[in-house]
């Protein structure tokens, strides 16, 4: 007797008997996976959720996946043991526990302090999602909004899909007096009443991110009586923060445009600006898609042998239902539902496909170029061409994913072997499991290539019965890549083929990651591409002080 609520793409929320989840969960503004979507702290271990109550302790609910014992009493005893080791005595454990879930799954509810919960909390990559994948349920994670710095990606377990978000083909433009950084000191003593203020301080920009400095500049301009502002920024897109302009004209420009405006002001005795209504440019006139600047980036710190993220999807200025109205928002929380929906459509088209096959279809058919054939860019400081640590396989392409030609499938048992040697109990680890990059993923990441590494992959044909694929390799710089065999033939009987990829460092250097790809092409309708990331090393443990 419990209530199980599936919360979109973040987590399960479990409420024990006697808890009115419909009100408690809503009123507590629960959020999962540390996304801080509602600006409220949450801790996750397995599926780890809490409901806020008055007082020092709070009710934390821990979902631990499938039962490990047939006898429910043994399951309850395991919950008591966990709390006893945390709290120091059986008496405190018994006083803390509120309910044990011991029939359909394993978990418990307990009253804990924040510090106790933090100590109990485990890795974010919750094993409950592994159980879901083992039962054929596709898991899609948000990758985080902490970019553009590298190694900021969240949720990097190999059995889920980590989603980045990107800017789509619609940009807002508006028309165009001097406020330097537009802080209180800069505006003090200057009459800006009713004027449009240029906030242009490139020498200070490096110390504050645009998302943090824009709201402050807007407030200062409004307090000083300004009628609007032009805010100079790095070449990063923050249009989704325009709601922070508090109703005054607010134009965001990069430093190159701001420099032209400043030159005009310095050479004109009475500089003026015309503020026009916003117009939308939609379609091929806009260079898009792009990877948004604050989309978290790879590589994965926890699992460098798993290339993350997996794919990018629309996630900037997305109109969505919220409470009893609609709201524009941005983030991987907006991109993730797009991929979840595509996964659901693929499952309806191909009911026999596993979660790994669905993930493979999405990753291997993603686009790395825009509508003009130009490589997709990644916003940031500086702006650059996107690489696999920015967008994984590329920009999601649902139509192509419906007919991928080949898929890289994975038996859930392989995930479990990986889990037991990383996040799981060490006594269940099989030393013969091998390296992470040996999982049959639709990507390859080698974090420490010294000399030569050979990796096996297996593909399953889901296209025409009789077809021949040829390998097309774009090797990472400084690495030789050989595929054997370089041709894969499929017929009505043979649907599965394996191949080996050998990576050899061509230079003995302590390098950084370089990128490439492997494409299996049938010369007609199918081009099955996986991204590759390789770092060459001489020493495994070193400090780069250059």
UniProtKB/TrEMBL annotation:
Domain Inhibitor I9 as annotated: residue spans: 60-122
UniProt keyword terms in alphabetical order: Hydrolase, Protease, Serine protease, Signal
BP GO annotations: proteolysis
Pfam families: fn3_6, Inhibitor_I9, Peptidase_S8
InterPro entries: Peptidase_S8/S53_dom (IPR000209), Peptidase_S8/S53_dom_sf (IPR036852), Peptidase_S8_Ser-AS (IPR023828), Peptidase_S8_subtilisin-rel (IPR015500), S8pro/Inhibitor_I9 (IPR010259), S8pro/Inhibitor_I9_sf (IPR037045), SBT (IPR045051), Subtilisin-like_FN3 (IPR041469)
Keyword ATP-binding: no
Classification via CDD domains: PA_subtilisin_like
Any one Gene Ontology molecular-function term assigned to this protein's record: serine-type endopeptidase activity
Record-annotated Peptidase S8/S53 domain positions: 130-369
Family to which this protein belongs: Belongs to the peptidase S8 family.
Protein name: Subtilisin-like protease SBT3.5
Species for this entry: Ananas comosus (Pineapple)
């Amino acid at each position: 007797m419990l209530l199980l609520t599936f919360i979109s793409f973040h987590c399960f929320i479990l409420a024990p008997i006697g808890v009115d989840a419909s009100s408690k969960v809503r009123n507590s503004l629960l959020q999962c996976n540390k996304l801080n979507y509602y600006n409220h702290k949450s801790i996750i271990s397995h599926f780890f959720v809490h409901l806020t109550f008055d007082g020092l302790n709070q009710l934390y609910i821990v979902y631990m996946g499938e039962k490990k014992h047939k006898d429910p009493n043994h399951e309850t005893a395991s919950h008591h043991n966990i709390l006893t080791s945390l709290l120091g005595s059986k008496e405190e454990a018994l006083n803390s526990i509120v309910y044990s879930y011991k029939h359909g799954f394993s978990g418990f509810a307990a009253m804990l302090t924040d510090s106790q919960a933090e100590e109990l909390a485990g890795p974010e990559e919750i094993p409950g999602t592994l159980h879901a994948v083992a039962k054929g349920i596709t898991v899609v994670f948000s990758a985080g909004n902490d970019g553009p710095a590298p190694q900021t990606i969240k949720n990097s377990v190999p059995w889920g899909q980590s989603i980045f978000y990107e800017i789509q083909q619609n940009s807002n433009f508006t028309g165009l007096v001097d406020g330097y950084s537009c802080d209180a000191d800069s505006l003090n003593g200057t009459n800006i009443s009713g004027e449009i203020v240029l906030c242009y301080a490139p020498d200070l920009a490096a110390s504050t991110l645009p998302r943090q400095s824009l709201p402050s500049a807007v407030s200062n301009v409004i307090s000083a009586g300004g009628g609007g502002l032009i805010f100079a920024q790095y070449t990063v897109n923050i249009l989704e923060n325009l709601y922070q302009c508090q109703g005054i004209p607010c134009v965001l420009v990069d430093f190159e445009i701001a420099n032209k405006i400043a030159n005009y002001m310095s050479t004109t005795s009475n500089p003026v600006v015309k503020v026009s209504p916003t117009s939308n440019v939609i379609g091929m006139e806009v260079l898009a898609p792009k990877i948004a600047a604050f989309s978290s980036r790879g590589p994965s710190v926890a699992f460098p042998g798993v290339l993350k993220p997996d794919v990018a999807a629309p996630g900037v200025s997305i109109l969505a239902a919220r409470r009893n109205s609609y709201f524009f928002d941005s983030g991987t929380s907006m991109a993730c539902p797009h991929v979840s929906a595509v996964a659901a459509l693929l499952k309806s088209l191909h009911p026999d496909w596993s979660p790994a096959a669905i993930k493979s279809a999405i990753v291997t058919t993603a686009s790395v170029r825009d509508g003009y054939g130009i490589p997709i860019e990644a916003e940031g400081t500086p702006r650059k061409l996107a690489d696999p640590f920015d967008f994984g396989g590329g920009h999601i392409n649902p139509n192509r994913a419906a007919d991928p030609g080949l898929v890289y499938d994975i038996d859930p048992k392989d995930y479990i072997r990986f889990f037991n040697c990383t996040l799981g109990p060490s006594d269940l680890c099989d030393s013969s499991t091998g390296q992470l990059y040996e999982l049959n993923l639709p990507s390859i990441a080698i974090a420490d290539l010294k000399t030569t590494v050979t990796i096996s992959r297996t593909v399953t044909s889901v296209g025409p019965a009789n077809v021949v694929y040829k390998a097309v390799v774009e090797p990472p710089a400084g690495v030789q890549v050989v595929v054997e065999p370089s041709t894969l033939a499929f017929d009505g009987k043979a649907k599965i083929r394996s191949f080996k990829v050998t990576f050899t460092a061509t230079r003995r250097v302590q390098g950084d990651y370089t990128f490439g790809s492997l494409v299996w092409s049938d010369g007609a309708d199918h081009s099955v591409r996986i991204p590759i990331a390789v770092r060459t090393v001489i020493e495994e443990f070193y400090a780069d002080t250059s």
